[in-house]
């Protein structure tokens, strides 16, 4: 008897429906075709043990299973439940009246219970697009899949529940998620709040500007000056994610299996902080069957690179194209996968190998030559993509012992949201530009028009401070953001003068 059951394969962050055709005929043997990987081929052992342990059996006949389309590679153990139900239906151990209405996915344990799968959200999105009535999957993934409206999602704990449902002996409980409630979960009490930071008011101001315009930022300062503490608090002042951003972010984390148990929609912006020993493949994504890397996992959030010069130069160089294009394309001989990677880069570094430079009170110091060699690990093209360079100085004792708390993240976030709202209106008709950091040269000329006083100020700064040519556009972008924070329609001289301060690494003589 021939039976068809439906599963799904995830390719990149998109899903493709897989038709599992099970045919049972005279003879002996188990034949699984359709380009399965080892994990799929091994499913026969898991299925056999699971069925035996719940009172069913693997038929002692010739079982032929085709997973169509046959030219698309099938990976992972999430097809166990699909195959098992197909075998039971084809051997008439259960009825098969409405199997074609559902996508069925899940990894089987030997006792018949189910383990969670990867990619539940993109699978649910594709199932809804193709008009399936429902999606049956492990209970741990139910909240994630239930984000998709117009599709019934049933989370089950074991295969026995599904068999009982198919035979009409019981009903499954539908999982429902209140999307509006999920999105409105506020960040009023973030784990890391700017009110915890003592002093460093000028650096907080830089972080606010970076958040308001989506600018990449690098913090330069000695150990213990608060660089990491400040970076960890940046997500708490970023605007809440839109529904589109939340879905896209959740999809990326879903395909890597990094969503939390019983967690539906991701409503907080991701913060990723890889160690400096990371490989280039782990950072941008890849592998034999490409998976998203850290830059994609930080999509719509923050990627924090602590001790930037300690990263291998090859690792830093592979970020140049994703920083510019806000997506990363991974090519293999037979296919190409593109992952989104629109993130804010926050980097930190010591000013020298010893951590202290030109500090008369420090027991250690580095020569200008050592420092130049240390900074030489970071290429000019990478620095060119970082809008704000700021020096962080140690917090004095008086500030550390103050009882007064700093400004909370919620207050800062309100100003950031107001500035982002202006940018949304400004770039409404532009497809790939949403905030100031994304402006092209043409858009800078259009939206960052200077009056004669501002032009003269910028010209003087370029000449006297020996600012490099690449600093010019960055200063205009940052000054536009500063103006937005003040709700100013045009860029004024004091906006330019503040933006000029945030180009430390562009000054010739910074090493002297």
Characterise this structure:
The protein has 512 residues and is α/β, with parallel strands linked by helices. The protein has two domains: 2-177, 2-Layer Sandwich (Ribosomal Protein S5, domain 2), CATH 3.30.230; 194-239 and 270-506, P-loop containing nucleotide triphosphate hydrolases (Rossmann fold), CATH 3.40.50.300. It has 22 helices and 18 strands. The protein has helices at 38-41, 43-53, 80-90, 120-129, 142-145, 159-166, 179-183, 201-213, 227-232, 243-255, 280-284, 294-297, 313-317, 320-325, 368-375, 380-383, 397-400, 409-426, 441-447, 452-464, 471-485, 493-500; strands at residues 2-11, 14-25, 29-33, 62-68, 102-104, 107-108, 114-115, 134-138, 152-156, 217-220, 271-272, 285-286, 291-292, 302-305, 327-331, 336-340, 344-349, 388-391. The strands form six sheets. Strands 11-14-17-10-18 form a five-stranded parallel β-sheet. A four-stranded mixed β-sheet has the order 1-2-4-3. The chain has a three-stranded parallel β-sheet with strand order 5-8-9, sandwiched between helices. Strand 6 (107-108) and strand 7 (114-115) form a beta hairpin. Helix 2 (43-53) crosses helix 3 (80-90), helix 8 (201-213) runs parallel beside helix 18 (409-426) and helix 21 (471-485) crosses helix 22 (493-500).
CATH topology group of the largest domain = Rossmann fold
Proportion of residues in helical segments: 25-40%
Average pLDDT, all residues: 87
As residue ranges, the low-confidence spans are 508-512
Strand order of the largest sheet: 11-14-17-10-18
The proportion of strand residues reads 15-25%
Instruction: Please state the overall shape, judged from the principal axes of the Cα atoms.
Output: elongated
CATH H-level homologous superfamily name of the largest domain: P-loop containing nucleotide triphosphate hydrolases
Tally of contiguous helical segments: 22
Provide the structure class.
Answer: alpha/beta
Given this structure, which CATH class of the largest domain is correct? Alpha Beta
Distance, first to last CA: 82 Å
| Biggest sheet character | 5 strands, parallel
Over the alpha carbons, how many angstroms does the gyration radius reach? 28 Å
- How many strand units? 18
Structural domain tally: 2
What is the CATH-assigned architecture of the largest domain? 3-Layer(aba) Sandwich
